[in-house]
């Protein structure tokens, strides 16, 4: 194998969870050229990853743009394509790539399986996404092994983060920095804003924490709502940080608290202690992989749920997670990290 393409046309967290596949390929084929194709908006996750030489950004809009992208793929003359997406669009790209070996999943037993030369052997039941993706390497003779996603930043990213924190009055000595991520791709995966605000009060009073609130520009109103509800006035960074600057800010945090989303996986990949709040998605499949992780999850019988409405009201899966539970989990991780610091 000399020229490989890995395809993952999903979201930020999905791309990050696929990085163990890149690491395993690099270890097995150290001289190979390794390229990854991803959706626009997720490419920054791989910008400084040492295991990949090129990141190709897949265009969604316009037939002409998609044809140009396909021609660019075919010009590279890949000998192997590994599709980790398990979707029609990615499978079509793999099928038209011209690669003689095309590996992909087809768990739904759809027509797209005809586009692959080899179907990756998925395990039955609930399997963590990292372990699932690694099984695509079995046809190449690579045995899956436990691995943790990795995210890399540059010195420039770190310097931008340092300037941002200084401008926000958060540089230098002070209480531990804690990142809150109250947003989620779907509203029913989000813990209520007022509970994030109450948690900010508790962590500030009990541990002297300085809370920062992350998120995208579209999540800034939610971040401002949490700040308004919290008497301790957390600092809102939502909408102010490019993705890798945000990652560099995360590296300076003692703790991350957030819903099931991409930033949760980013924090875990950077080795930041994580309190992850799960509702309709299953942490056995989508939980953060990191050295210090606490997951709060109620496992209701209606899960997994991706419907636009929820009939449980105040008894919904996210609202069943109490501030006391989250505060206790956060306190355990804060105290553990403090003891580690004392030993060093």
Question: Can you give a write-up of this model?
Answer:
The protein is of the alpha/beta class. The protein has two domains: 138 residues, Glycogen Phosphorylase B (Rossmann fold); 187 residues, Rossmann fold (3-Layer(aba) Sandwich). 36% of the residues lie in helices and 16% in strands. It is built from twelve helices and twelve strands. Helix 7 runs parallel beside helix 12. The model has no long low-confidence stretch (mean pLDDT 92).
For this structure, the CATH topology of the largest domain is Rossmann fold
Strand sequence of the main sheet, in spatial order?
Answer: 3-2-1-4-5-6
Beta-strand content estimate: 15-25%
What top-tier CATH class of the largest domain fits best?
Answer: Alpha Beta
Provide the residue-averaged pLDDT. Answer: 92
Give me the strand/helix succession. Answer: EHHEEHEHEEHHEHEHEHEHEHEH
Q: Could you name the key traits of this structure?
A:
344 residues, alpha/beta, Rossmann fold, 6-stranded parallel β-sheet, 12 strands
Brief account:
With 344 residues, this protein is an alpha/beta fold. The protein has helices spanning 12-17, 19-28, 63-75, 88-96, 129-134, 155-167, 193-207, 220-229, 243-251, 262-269, 283-286, 323-343, and strands at 3-8, 33-39, 54-58, 80-83, 101-104, 118-119, 177-181, 210-213, 235-236, 255-259, 274-278, 293-297.
């Amino acid at each position: 194998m000399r020229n490989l393409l890995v395809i993952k046309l999903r979201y930020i967290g999905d791309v990050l969870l696929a990085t163990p596949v890149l690491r395993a390929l690099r270890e097995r084929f150290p001289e190979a050229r390794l390229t990854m194709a991803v959706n626009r908006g997720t490419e920054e996750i791989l910008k400084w990853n040492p295991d990949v030489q090129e990141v190709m950004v897949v265009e969604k809009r316009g037939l002409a743009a998609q044809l140009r992208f396909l021609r660019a793929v075919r010009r590279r003359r890949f000998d192997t394509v590994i599709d980790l997406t398990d979707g029609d669009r990615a499978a079509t790209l793999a099928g038209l790539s011209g690669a003689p070996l095309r590996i992909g999943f087809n768990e739904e037993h759809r027509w797209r399986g005809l586009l692959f030369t080899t179907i990756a052997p998925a395990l039955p039941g609930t399997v963590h996404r990292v372990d699932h993706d690694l099984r695509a390497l079995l046809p190449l003779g690579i045995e899956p092994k436990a691995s943790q996603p990795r995210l890399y930043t540059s010195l420039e990213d770190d310097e931008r983060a340092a300037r941002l924190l200084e401008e926000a009055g958060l540089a230098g000595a002070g209480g531990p920095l804690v990142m809150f991520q109250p947003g989620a791709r779907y509203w029913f995966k989000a813990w209520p804003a007022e509970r994030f605000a109450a948690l900010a009060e508790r962590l500030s009073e009990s541990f002297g924490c300085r809370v920062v609130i992350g998120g995208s520009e579209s999540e800034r109103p939610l971040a401002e709502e949490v700040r308004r509800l919290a008497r301790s006035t957390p600092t809102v960074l939502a909408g102010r940080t490019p993705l890798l600057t945000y990652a560099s800010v995360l590296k300076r945090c003692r703790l991350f608290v957030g819903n099931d989303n991409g930033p949760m996986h980013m924090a875990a990949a950077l080795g930041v202690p994580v309190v992850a709040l799960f509702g309709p998605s299953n942490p056995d499949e989508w939980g953060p992989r990191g050295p210090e992780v606490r997951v709060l999850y109620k496992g209701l019988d209606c899960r997994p749920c991706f419907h636009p409405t929820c009939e449980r009201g105040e008894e919904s899966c996210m609202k069943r997670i109490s501030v006391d539970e989250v505060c206790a989990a956060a306190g355990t991780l804060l105290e553990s990290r403090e003891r580690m610091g004392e030993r060093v």
